[in-house]
Amino acid sequence: MNDAMNSGSIPTHRTKAVNDSDSTPQPIRSLEARYYTDPDIFHLEQAGLLARTWQFAGHSSLVNKPGDYFTFTIAGENLFCVRDREGELHGFYNVCQHRAHELLSGEGNTREVVCPYHAWTYTLNGQLRTGPNVNSVPGFDRSRICLTPVRIEVFHGFVFANLDTDAAPMDDWFPGVREELEAYVPHIERLQPLEWIDTPEACNWKVSVENYSECYHCTLNHRAFATGVIKPNTYDIQPQGHCLRHTTASANLDRMSYPIDLDSNEHAGEYSSWFLWPMFSFQVYPGNILNTYHWRAESTDHVTVWRGWYTIDGTDSEVVRRLASQDRATTVEEDIHLVESVQRGLNSRGYKPGPLVLDPACGLRSEHSVHALQQWMRDAIKPVKNHDKHL
Predict the structure, then answer these.
(1) Is 75:190 a contact under the CB 8 Å cutoff?
(2) Which residues pair with 109 in a beta bridge?
(3) Angle 205-212/368-385 helices, nearest 10 degrees?
């Protein structure tokens, strides 16, 4: 993140160089279309950004017991998470060290990890245990063969992975978020998924993330959200490390679209969201109802957004299911049309990046959060950009 964002100041324009004949301040413009349409940039993101950042893998309720596992994908890599007999959670590349066959699929429970190709067998902590006829190989040392590990962190029951072995911990990336989430959802460690809703979108993942990360469009396009959940005049989004923190008061009780108990928690009457760069968000609705967004980039112009809804111990809840259904029929459906229209526009020869609306007072009608995102997006390909002059 740049110094201006860290200091909390919001730049509203760029000034040309002193020796430039025109010293008129110039607005900061949005990213050029190629950031969203060029397959080469998507490839750079897969090889770099998405492999060097904390990505959501799954919920820890999938791996409660020794031997429980689930598979997942990050930056095109097939991976799995498993709990060993001592209760420790491990992440590994899902590939046998013999001749590269995939080891596991889906989710389940196993006493040991056995390759379906030649039955090479690994313990739950990744060490090779045995393989057919390996003892006949002179100098064969099974103690030197183990699965390739992947960094794993559990964040209030949510499992994240990072392919970068030197990555800073999540608390460094997202300062204060762990504590704030616990304050807004005191029972978060007891939550389990109640419902998952996947939404394919025909757009670049960054188009969808930008749309989520500003509310400049909310009052015009999200009537149910803007009148039944939040108070638009209190809405604000601020950078917090590599997190974008959304805050607002909730709508008046007589206008709420579902019942809430204001006495249940000091934050029960608030909406808040924590977007964790680059592809995950915790979102707390009034009443301390947690839901999450998880973006999965499929290609340059396709992304799937997984929306999770949670309750204590995964107990069924009519309120949560009704809210999830209402959200899918209104805000989510409305956003699909918006982001897909933007993607089509980015492919138009007639598009030239326009100025971002950067209000020093921030608030609902400012795009300062998009400015922060787009700087992170530029930085994400900068190490390779110097070697590729057309980017």
Answers:
(1) no
(2) 68
(3) 150
How far, in Å, CA of 249 to CA of 19, rounded?
48
pLDDT for residue 159 is more than 80: yes
Query: How far is 225 from 257, CA to CA, in rounded Å?
Result: 9
Q: Alpha-carbon distance 257 to 220, whole Å?
A: 18
The DSSP bridge partners found for residue 81 are 70, 91
Residue 279 near residue 296, CB atoms below 8 Å = yes
Separation between Cα atoms, residue 281 and residue 177, nearest integer Å: 11
The torsion angles phi and psi of 179, rounded to 5 degrees, stand at -70, -40
CATH code matching the domain that covers 173-379, chosen among 3.40.50.720, 3.40.190.10, 3.30.830.10, 3.90.380.10? 3.90.380.10
**What are the tens digits of pLDDT across the range 87-134?**
999 999 999 999 999 999 999 999 999 999 999 999 999 999 999 999
CATH number 3.40.50.2300 given to 55-155? no
- What is the token pair recorded at 233? 């005049």
C-alpha to C-alpha distance for 103 and 81, rounded to whole angstroms: 12
Chain segment 203-230, per-residue pLDDT in tens: 999 999 999 988 766 665 667 676 667 6
Predicted pLDDT of residue 81: 98
What are 131-134's contacts with CB under 8 Å, separation 24+?
Answer: 131/98
Q: Evaluate whether 32 touches 353 at the Cβ level (below 8 Å).
A: yes
CB atoms within 10 A of CB 16: 12
* CB of 81 closer than 8 Å to CB of 72: yes
Give the alpha-carbon dihedral of 328, 333, 335, 336, to 10 degrees: 120
